[in-house]
Amino acid sequence: MEVIFLLGSALTFFLSFMVYDKKNKSISDYVLFSWLAFGGLHLLNYYLRSTGFMLRHPHLLSLGIAFPMLH
Asked: Taking the model in full, what pTM does it have?
């Protein structure tokens, strides 16, 4: 499952970079960029929780609480 979270996070970061690098951006491109970036961070949070990284660094445990709200 960790591989799926990591690949999904990498894919959303790549897509958000592609949208950010686009010429002649409109407001909808900025909205799509921010939505993809927050989605990538949310998946990265799931990855870090499933690998146990968050348990080794407990100060990061509450970092992902706001991600569902940001979606």
From this structure: 0.84
